[in-house]
Write a structure and sequence with these properties.
This is Long-chain-fatty-acid--CoA ligase. One of its GO terms (molecular function) is long-chain fatty acid-CoA ligase activity. Its EC number is 6.2.1.3. Pfam families: AMP-binding (PF00501). With 149 residues, this protein is an alpha/beta fold. The chain has a single domain, classed as Rossmann fold (3-Layer(aba) Sandwich). Helix content is 40%, strand content 26%. The longest helix is centred in the N-terminal third of the chain and has 18 residues, at 37-54.
Length: 149
């Protein structure tokens, strides 16, 4: 790769030209844990495959609501973008009614949330949206587990 033309090209460009053992770091239980460029690319590709299995297609809108800045959200962003889908970041502290408005006007059909509090707000309005599925992403130390609700 000689040129970066899309956001999801950055990890691949870095992997090819200057791989970094600490491309991203996140604090888990008070200790900083690195993610290498190779792990970043591999995990992003795994996320893309998981999204494809969920039925995500090009131009689908995927809402992401997180109360924390973590490596996993960067991985999810790249995984979404390289499928040609669109990441719709939503501010985590808005009301359930505001979630309904944003989810409808963004035409989001999938929604990933970071915690149970946000999940409950989305559940309140899900019937009034076009959401096919919403998923609680639980972060456990270095690994992430996707759990359907």
């Amino acid at each position: 790769m000689t040129e970066v033309t899309r956001l999801f090209d950055f990890p691949y460009f870095q992997l090819q030209h200057k791989p970094n053992p600490k491309a991203l770091v996140t604090k888990y239980d008070g200790k900083w844990q690195p993610t290498s460029t190779q792990e970043y690319v591999d995990n992003s590709n795994a996320m893309s495959r998981a999204l494809l299995r969920l039925g995500v297609q090009k131009d689908d809108k995927i809402a992401v609501i997180s109360t924390a800045n973590r490596t996993e959200w960067n991985i999810m962003d790249i995984g979404i973008l390289q499928l040609g889908a669109q990441n719709i970041p939503i501010y985590p502290t808005i009301s359930a009614e505001d979630y309904e408005y944003v989810l409808n006007h963004s035409e989001s059909i999938y929604c990933f949330v970071s915690d149970v509090e946000v999940l409950e707000k989305v559940r309140k309005v899900q019937a009034n949206t076009k959401l096919k599925r919403f998923i609680l992403l639980i972060i456990l130390k270095v690994a992430s587990t996707i759990q359907n609700y």
